[in-house]
Amino acid sequence: MLGHPFADVNIPNEYREAANVLLTSEFLKGSNIYSLEVLDGKFPPMIYLYGPVYSLITAVFGSFIKIDLVLLHYFVTFACIIGSAFLAAAIVKDHSRL
Asked: What are the residue ranges of helices labelled H in 1-98?
């Protein structure tokens, strides 16, 4: 409990979160995630529920920021949340009557 707060950050919090990390890892390796090799059993199939844009953005950052992919996903998510908050604040400011 008194350890470093990022001690277990390389372990995804839930089962579905690992799919985005695996997708980002495949993008960084340069492999084709839509090839038929996925189906022939050479490696476990990857199932992801969301589109690949988030993993592509994270892979771009992962190509020059060399940290753990799970931690990088957390940083990208945090940056997107902050960006969304600023965007929402700008929209509210534009549509507010002062």
From this structure: 17-29, 53-64, 69-95
Q: Are 69 and 62 in contact (CB under 8 A)?
A: yes
Summarised one tens digit per residue, pLDDT across range 29-61 is 887 776 766 666 665 555 566 678 888 899 999
User: What three-state secondary structure class fits 46?
Assistant: coil
* Paired tokens of 69: 């992919």
Of 60, 90, 91, the C-alpha closest to 75 is 60
Both tokens of residue 64? 């020059």
CA angle, residues 14, 19, 21, in degrees to nearest 5 = 95
